[in-house]
């Protein structure tokens, strides 16, 4: 639920930052959503400067969309839900940032996604986008699984599927793996005619570049390509197990968020697919809730 006791004149901005994009929503208690903005990748694990730039781009676009002057940024109470800040070193680096907001409150993208999905109530959420991870909040107790980052984890994510597609393509091109239609699609995507040309183009690329290839895997799987089906089933099996672990905490609701949430759903274990409910609010609104609650708690501490 939205906090009820904040000042009606206060302006909040909720920011949801992940490996592919950064979304910002400016919210007024009195008027509701005023404007939104979209920036680039905002996972500090893959670049702190790029993350801060994406936050500012999405903020400025949201201000413009709201018809507010850029100087209004100094009046905003900001809630930030960012990928990667579950690592203490990255959390500290973001907190050291000389930000332009009136105040900034930082947590993980998992936390704000869960708050938004269940509108502040208890529940569990699985993010299946560029990366993958799970989070639940039940009776004030939070639990999270996965979220170990690319390429150490993030199984079932867009980046993982893209990487698996490239690995299968390279094996096929070298005559060491099973033949797959992914080879034609991937070589066409890169305008490459041999394995080393693909390796050269993907060398040093961020997880978001691999995630762009996930759609090819689903398309091939839906056309019964054996290799693609195997990739999707392996990813879906992991996400189903992730959901089962979260459901051990008995959350009243379970939602999936991210670009793969819809295409992956039909591949999940049947009992898990039946439990998945649509999120009530997006992660950036969860970040607004988080900022509101943080302001309320701060005010309560001052009044004691």
Detailed description of the structure:
This is ATPase. Helix 4 (158-173) runs antiparallel to helix 9 (226-247) and helix 8 crosses helix 9 (226-247). The chain has helices at residues 48-66, 88-95, 109-117, 158-173, 182-190, 195-202, 207-211, 214-222, 226-247, 261-265, 270-275, 283-303, and strands at residues 11-17, 22-28, 32-39, 76-82, 103-108, 123-128, 132-138, 141-146, 254-257. The two termini are 24 Å apart. A hairpin with a 3-residue loop joins strand 2 and strand 3. The strands form two sheets. It has a five-stranded mixed sheet with strand order 3-2-1-4-5. It has a four-stranded mixed sheet with strand order 8-7-6-9, sandwiched between helices. With 304 residues, it is α/β, with parallel strands linked by helices.
What portion of residues belong to β-strands? 15-25%
Q: Give the class from helix and strand content and strand pairing.
A: alpha/beta
Record the strand order, biggest sheet: 3-2-1-4-5
Total count of strands: 9
Order of helices and strands: EEEHEHEHEEEHHHHHHEHHH
Helix content: 40-55%
What kind of sheet is the major sheet? 5 strands, mixed
Radius of gyration: 20 Å
Mean pLDDT: 93
Organism: Pseudoalteromonas shioyasakiensis
Pfam families: BcrAD_BadFG
Protein name: ATPase
InterPro entries: ATPase_BadF, ATPase_NBD, Euk-type_GlcNAc_Kinase
């Amino acid at each position: 639920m939205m906090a009820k006791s904040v000042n009606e004149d206060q302006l909040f901005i909720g920011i949801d930052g992940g490996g592919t994009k950064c979304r910002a929503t400016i919210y007024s208690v009195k008027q509701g959503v005023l404007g939104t903005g979209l920036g680039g990748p905002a996972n500090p694990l893959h670049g702190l400067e790029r993350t801060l730039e994406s936050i500012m781009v999405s903020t400025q676009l949201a201000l413009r969309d709201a018809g507010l002057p850029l100087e209004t940024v100094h009046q905003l109470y900001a809630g930030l839900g960012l990928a990667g800040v579950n690592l203490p070193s990255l959390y500290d680096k973001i907190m050291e940032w000389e930000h332009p907001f009136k105040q900034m409150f930082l947590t993980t993208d998992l936390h704000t996604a869960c708050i938004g999905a269940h509108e502040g109530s208890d529940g569990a959420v699985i993010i299946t986008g560029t990366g993958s991870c799970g989070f639940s909040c039940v009776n004030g107790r939070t639990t999270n699984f996965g979220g170990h980052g690319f390429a150490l984890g993030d199984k079932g994510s867009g980046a993982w599927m893209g990487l698996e597609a490239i690995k299968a393509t390279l094996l096929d091109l070298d005559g060491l793996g099973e033949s797959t239609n992914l080879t034609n699609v991937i070589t066409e995507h890169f305008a490459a005619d041999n394995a080393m040309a693909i390796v050269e183009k993907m060398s040093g690329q961020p997880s978001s570049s691999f995630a762009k290839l996930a759609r090819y895997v689903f398309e091939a799987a839906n056309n019964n390509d054996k290799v693609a089906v195997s990739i999707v089933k392996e990813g879906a099996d992991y996400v189903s197990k992730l959901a089962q672990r979260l459901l051990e905490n008995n959350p009243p609701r379970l939602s999936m968020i991210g670009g793969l949430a819809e295409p992956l759903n039909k591949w999940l274990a049947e009992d898990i697919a039946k439990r998945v409910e649509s999120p009530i609010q997006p992660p950036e609104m969860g970040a607004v809730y988080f900022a509101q609650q943080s302001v309320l708690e701060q005010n309560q501490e001052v009044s004691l």
